[in-house]
Every structure is written in structure tokens, then in C-alpha cells.
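haha ok so turns out i had the wrong file open the whole time. this is the CORRECT one, sorry everyone. sequence first:
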Amino acid sequence: MVHDGHRTLGELISLDGKISLITGAASGIGRAIAERYAEAGSALMLVDIDREKLNNFAEILRGRKVDVAQFIVDLSRKEEIDRLWEEIGSNPPDILVNNAGIYPFRKFDEVDEEFLDRVLNINLKSVFWMCQKMIGAREDKGGAIINISSIEAILPFKDWPLCIWPQQMGRTFPYEKPCKRLQQQGLQDQRPATRRNKHAGNQECRKRHPETAARPDQGWP
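then structure:
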């Protein structure tokens, strides 16, 4: 069956008999992933910090006869990640989707330790701990891990300098205007991977958001 010109995921692949754990599943991309995996027949373990949204979504899925378990977890706290995997116990997921992330905005010279720690704990450390737990739980069984990132890892936005996704840190902060002097002192070599990137997604993003997209090839206006 084709819906709006697209086949359902269940018509393309089968996840029957599989269990998928998806973080940040109460809304947005995580919710969309969960819905598509359910289409393909997967049982779901849904993780989010928003209890109300997660419980409501889980009830919707159960109404569609989807096998769902939900877990309220603050992924910024390792002890809660440990508790999650203890609760999962001897029936670990076949597929782990590390989707959860936060997207705060703050000027580079206004970032304090608490703000930075929260971003890194969720966007970086939780991914590490979740992968570690998944690998340990699966042992020799095999499985799949999918880590969701952001286009800002390769195309940071001007004036939003904090590393929203950890892999972009070295490339993002030099774009902030207060740090322009650092470029002049030799740190501009942190940008070549971004400058060289010709990926179509980057070009499309620049077309859609010309007023905010950083343009390393042109320098500052």
C-alpha cells in the first residue's frame, strides 16, 4: 500500500520479533521513529523524561495493538540510565536508537558550567552510556545501534555557538563574533572540514535559512 506516494516501512522491511529502544520518544523525531518501527512490526521500549507525553503516546500505540513499554528517565543522570538497564534486565532490545537531545541557545561567552554540563550529559555522555549498556547486554547476540545527530555538526549557525551536538564543538565556537580574534590568531584551521563540505543537505539548509546559516567560505559580513 502506498500512502501519499510513499510505502509504509512495514512494506519495505520487517522488524517482527524485534525490540527497539528509542530515547526521546515522546515527541518529534523520536516519536516518528517509534511510529515507523511499529509499522514494521517491532515491539517498543520508549524512553523520555516527559511522563505525560510519553504515557499518552504509549496508549495511542497500544490502541494500534503495538507491544509497548515506557520508561521515564532523565538521561542527564547516569544513575537513571543504570536503573533503566537494570529494569530491562535479561530481555535487552535488538535495536537501540539514541535520539534524545537538547537544543539550548546561549552565546559562547555566556555559557556557564551548569549549562555546559547539562548539554554534554544529555547529548554526549548519555549516548556513550547507552551504547555501553547495549553492547554489554547483547554480548554475542548482535544487534543494531543508531545514534542520531544534527546537521549542525557540519553546518553550525552563526551566533549560536555552543556545541549542541558534541562532535561539532571544535568547529562551532570560532564562528561566534566575540571569538573572531581567535580566528586571526590561527584557530581558523578548525574549520576546513566545514569549508570543504559540499553535501547537498548543507546547500539546501543555506537556501532555506540564508539569514542564520554560517558561511565559512565568505567569512563575516
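The two ends are 50 Å apart (CA to CA).
again sry for the mixup
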